[in-house]
Hints:
3-stranded antiparallel sheet
Amino acid sequence: MPPLKQHFRILNTDPGSAARLGLLSTVHGEVHTPAFMPVGTQGTVKALTPDTVKSLGAEIILCNTYHLYLRPGHRLIESLGGLHRFMNWPGPILTDSGGFQVYSLGKLRKVTREGVIFQSHIDGSRHKITPELAIEIQEALNTDIMMCLDECTPWPAGFQEAESSLSLTLSWAERSRKARTNSSSQALYGIIQGGMYLELRRRAVEAITAMDFDGYALGGVSVGEPKPLMEQIVSETAPLLPEDRPHYLMGVGTPEDIVRAVDCGIDLFDCVMPTRCARHGLLFTNAEKVVIKNARYREDNGPLDSDCDCYTCRNFSRAYLRHLYVAGEILAMTLNTLHNIRYYMRLMEQIRSAIGRGQYAAFKTRFLKDRRMSEA
């Protein structure tokens, strides 16, 4: 028998919230949820080797269809054995369809009912991605979880604009579902859009879930809207999703965002924040956000985070990390990224532990209180 593309099992639920502890099984391994996916946009988590990413606790990573289509090309990757072998990552991979990246191109794109026509950000060449091509690319990459092509509704958007955008996403979702040919080993997730309108979000859930995807994602949040509005959309939409399928919140986010969203029943997260912040010298700790270039750390012989078990915190002082960053040394990017990814992995471990003990509501309250105090 061929391997099953995906199996999701809920192991425990929290009595005081909608948080759930789960196990997502794929062809390339298991993922303990809630889980955070480090972003390896172009087939690499920037500044880290795959074995380092794995050693930090990551079980699944995210790569991007748009970028890998443009460079080096999905057919090349397919000819070299698929994305897992190409980048030497043995665990599960989720590929974003590229809808958000095309959305971010602004004037370089044109959206039609057929698909999206855009200019490459690399050389200006013109391309057209349709729902069918997005599936074709992801099947060539042979990743574990594929995403339907969707249109990311901008912020702000009027009701009619958001409704029109949702109509396009629903049409593309159906075409994506029909286009897939490898249903034995690759899961396909549908994406819930609808802007900041709960009526449209409910309509999207009803239509997308009727298509019976392997998992469901909330898209179109964290695109500039006020934080309370994002929290409302997540808290009122997530409970509408089928309980027996994974729930994925796309592009989110900060540690606080993740803790709140887990409370709503979200299982999967991704965001460039830990890697991007690391490259800009912003490092995460529970006590404070450390801007390592600041002069206050010039003679600081203490570890970055005394509570962290990562290689960076166990071996180097804040003074040394500041020196590397100010000097523009490549090692600064590696050590900073290593710490930030491990911070996120430790956060997810703490979240899963709290859910397993049935104490997530208390964990959330304490975590958010401590974060507010650290930033006061």
